[in-house]
Structures are given as C-alpha cells and as structure tokens.
Amino acid sequence: MLRRSSDPVRLASSIARVATFVALAATLAGCVSIPQRAWRNGAALEDSVRRWNESCAAGSDSEFGRRKMLVPFTKPPFYAIELSPSMLNTQGGPRRNERGQVVRPDDTPIPRLYSAGELGSIYSHLYQGTGNIGECLAFGRISARNAVAEAPWDGAGTPAVS
C-alpha cells in the first residue's frame, strides 16, 4: 500500500517495494547489482551518466542538442527501470472524417476540431496492430493542413470576415 508523503525518498522507497521492476540504489553501481537487474551493462550505464553530467556542466547536451533542463545525476538515491520497445495501443474515441475533422454521431464535422493518431482512429472499433504510426503521420499532416487553412477568429470565437 502506498501512502502519500511529501518526502520523495520515502515515497520512492514505497514505490520500489511495491513495484519490483524499479531499481532503487544509493549508487549507480547499485542499480546494476540489485536483483531486478534493471540495467544489465553497468559500464554502459556509468558511461552514459558520465557523458550526461559532462553535458550538463557544459550547458549543452552534446548528443541530442538539448539546452534546457540539463540537471546532472549526482545526488542519490538513483532509480533505474528496464525499458524495451513495445507498442501501446488504444481503440475508440471520437471518429474523424477524411479531412481529419472530428465528427458527431451523425457524421457532421465539429468546427475547428481536428485529430490525428489513435484519437478518432479510422480503424475505430477494429484493432490493427502497427497501423497507428501510419495514422499519426498521415492524419497529423492532413489535420494540420486543414486546420491552418481555417479562417482566423476575430477573438470573439467567430471567423473573421475579410
């Protein structure tokens, strides 16, 4: 049972006890040596954290070009979790038409409401594994093009008249 706590270490400790897939350790090496084996290559973990910390000290992420939220990993406790690529999929939600517009149950479009990806999937109630990335790309582009083609609003919620 998790209890609310303003102490992040206590909360993290509770989470680590409940969720056995989360590694909690006082050192980076400890994240490798715990039973969960959250990070299987200790040298790679330590090298990755060393490079990140160097980027933080330099004020620029040398690998990905980030310039914000550069906070080094220096203060324990450390947490690790094993991640692997997988597909997350949801079905349902509002339907959309070929222009990417969200439609009502009678298939009339709701003005200025567009969707992309799984939200309003063209597959709707069907499961089509690996189809979602295609929908993200195709309907992201379709919806964006149609949304930017809309007449600007006058600030009162109605389209401006040119």
What does this entry look like structurally?
The protein is an alpha+beta fold. It folds into two domains: 74 residues, Flavocytochrome C3, Chain A, domain 1, CATH 3.90.700; 77 residues, no CATH class. Helices cover 31% and strands 10% of the residues. It contains four helices and four strands; from the N terminus they run αβααβββα. The strands form two sheets. Strands 1-2 form a two-stranded antiparallel ribbon. The radius of gyration is 23 Å and the shape is elongated. The N and C termini lie far apart (61 Å).
What is this structure's SSE topology?
Layout: H1 8-18, E1 22-25, H2 28-33, H3 42-58, E2 78-81, E3 101-103, E4 109-114, H4 132-148
Antiparallel strand pairs: 1-2, 3-4
Key terms for this structure?
162 residues, two-stranded antiparallel ribbon, 31% helix
Question: Kindly state the mean pLDDT as a whole number?
Answer: 76
Question: What is the rounded distance between the termini?
Answer: 61 Å
- What order do the SSEs take from the amino end to the carboxyl end, as H and E? HEHHEEEH
What count of helical segments does DSSP give? 4
Spatial strand sequence of the major β-sheet: 1-2
How many domain units?
2
Question: What proportion of the residues form beta strands (DSSP E)?
Answer: 5-15%
Report low-confidence residues grouped into runs of 5 or more.
none
Sheet of most strands:
2 strands, antiparallel
Helical/strand content category:
alpha+beta
Number of E-type strands: 4
* Envelope shape: elongated
Helix content: 25-40%
Radius of gyration: 23 Å
